[in-house]
Write a structure and sequence with these properties.
four-stranded mixed beta sheet, seven-stranded mixed beta sheet, alpha+beta, homodimer, 26% strand, globular, 12 strands, 60s Ribosomal Protein L30, Chain: A, disordered C terminus, 32% helix
């Protein structure tokens, strides 16, 4: 590509990269081109927000089969632009190549605006665990598509196609003293486990029937339709890209966050990286999404 | 990926992105994994140098077939690191996914160190056209591999596998007042045409038998072996990633640059974007590499 110049008024730039591959991260019969573009952009914007930064710009690498209609590519660009516009994020450049399957590689940059970057590794015993954003909707939407119900519970299907994380919650969390943060992309328990491992702590979710009451109510109809326990969607679902953060006990949480658990020291039988649900080991069915297992 | 924080002491960051796809940009039977990594990194470093900046960091997106040996991936990383080390460039992060064919998407960042970025569009009539680096070697090496002569003229095959652009020539050119610059990635005439078009000028290469005497001498043996006119390699070859720049007439060129032509106004029958060779229209056989035509 032709190079681009990004402003970096902070003297630092935050960068992240995600690669999406057709039939692994999206299906062209489940999502429109614009949906794929939206999701590719949004999950990258969430990565930047999760560091406490404001996303500023994308560069996009595309691999496109020769028989892909041109309108698919323009649709992809339109969806990316739609996801970026409300945050004022610019798509500053890219590169494309022919190939056998569609690949969308997005690199995103962000501005810390003077904040210290929030890492995964800073959670301390005594902190509270909090979440900004919905949980379980995207995976429910995917399950509906998988089961051949694209038109039932359109709000959930739309959450899968166009996740809407609260990007402003990231910088707000950093300003409120968040000690650790990441976005929930592979599943709540799995990503909580990553935060716990990086921080050397144990996380204990409060009773999820309480903590996720509103999410469970939204999921109830679809869960009945598919014969699924909606709690599994809440605990194992990713790709809503909610922001999972820890804050010192007693901190004033930003409005968009709700407490969903507590941070404990890793002592005795509880090893660092473990995630408990209401004091008990997490149910084994509650696994996150693993792109290599499919 | 987990986000990374880049230093941006200049208050700006230069960014570029290139995507390489197996069997389109590289072949695993022609290049080792380390060679592919070297080339993926180096062509990105050259993009940054061509803006007058010093490359500082890479982020790397990989798509890997499930049956790809792990040692291929470690080899790729080793080759990237080897290409980056002499410039002090760090690989700061990345993302990977399974997929049907190998894709390497590299995003590179650079530091302008207070310089104004050099664009393609600033060439003026009266400027001289100059090149830093070898020309024609990479395409000759590829032709040798294509013709089944991997062991003849190993220096040329190595130039294809591990191009060695003079990265320091980019910032040096900017300091010397370069008015336009790009790296020769798709062919000398083709990339010169891009510079001419962006600048609204005509470029006239001086007699290539003179200007590229040293390159032609290096290519002579391989050209005889394959029955090719080495001038075609010089004029149409890309991927040596030499830096092609224009400087005001009378400017002191940095040591690594040699004059290869002149910039004329686009008047009369000479339309903007045209590239002449010694006053004549370029031979039609001298086409650059087009990834979609293969």
């Amino acid at each position: 590509m032709i190079g681009a110049v990004l402003a970096a008024p902070d003297g630092r730039v935050v960068v992240s990269l995600d690669v999406l591959v057709e039939n692994r991260h999206f299906r062209r019969d489940w999502s429109s081109a614009a949906d794929v573009g939206w999701r590719a952009a949004m999950q990258n914007l969430a990565d930047i927000a999760a560091m406490g930064a404001r996303p500023t710009s994308l560069v996009v690498g595309l691999v496109l089969p020769a028989d892909l209609p041109a309108r698919w590519v323009t649709g992809l660009a339109r969806g990316m632009a739609a996801a970026c516009a409300p945050s004022g994020v610019a798509i500053v450049g890219g590169d494309l190549s022919a190939g056998d399957e569609v690949v969308v590689a997005v690199t995103v940059h962000g501005d810390l605006e003077g904040r210290s970057p929030v890492l995964r590794s800073g959670a301390h015993p005594g902190d509270v665990l909090a979440l900004a954003g919905a949980q379980g909707r995207s995976v429910a939407g995917m399950a509906l598509l998988q089961a051949g119900h694209p038109r039932a519970h359109l709000d959930l299907v739309d959450s899968y196609r166009r996740p809407r994380p609260i990007l402003a919650a990231g910088p707000a969390a950093a300003d409120a003293g968040a000690t650790a943060m990441l976005d929930v992309s592979d599943g709540l328990l799995r990503d909580a486990g990553r935060l716990a491992l990086a921080s050397g702590v144990v996380l204990d979710l409060i009773d999820p029937a309480e903590a996720f009451r509103a999410d469970l109510a939204v999921l109830d109809g679809a869960a009945r339709l598919l014969g699924v326990d909606p709690l599994e969607w809440v605990l194992a679902g990713g790709e809503d890209h909610g922001l999972l953060a820890t804050f010192p006990g007693g901190a004033d949480l930003p409005e968009s966050f709700r407490v969903i658990g507590h941070v404990h020291a890793a002592t005795g039988p509880e090893v660092a990286g473990r995630v408990l649900v209401h004091g008990a080991a997490a149910p084994v069915t509650a696994r996150g999404w693993d792109h290599f297992r499919g």
